[in-house]
Amino acid sequence: MILYNITFLVNEDIDAEFTAWIRYDFLPKLANESIFKGQSFLKVLDSPNEGETYSLQMMSASEKEIDLFKTGFFNRIQEKIEQHWKNQLYLFESRMEYIAFY
Questions:
Q1: Domain that holds residue 71
Q2: DSSP of 8-75, one letter per residue?
């Protein structure tokens, strides 16, 4: 299993708009596609960054699901940032492999 993570560094000026878009538009559409075994949206409480930091985590059976996500849904995120939040929201991706899960 792979945990695919996208971390968002969000300017406080757009925080409410961004979180509403992820929660009420993006995540429901992603969940309807059933690409991942599950997806979560979390707020990082102890981030050293300015503004707010969020994590979008998706549990994947393989790289295949992540590739599928990246060819469709990831582009939606990038387009939204480019059109509405340029220079106010930054993201970076990471992938983690589950070694043990109890």
A1: 2-97
A2: EEE-GGGHHHHHHHIIIIIHHHHHHHT-SSEEEEEE-TT--SSSEEEEEEEEESSHHHHHHHHHTHHH
Which residues are CB-contacts of 30 (< 8 A; sequence separation ≥ 6)? 36, 39, 58, 69, 73
The CATH number assigned to the domain holding 9 equals 3.30.70.100
Is 102 inside a domain boundary? no
pTM for the model stands at: 0.89
pLDDT tens-digit series, residues 9-64: 999 999 999 999 999 999 999 999 888 899 999 999 988 888 899 999 999 999 99
Half-sphere exposure of 3 (CA within 13 A, CB side): 13
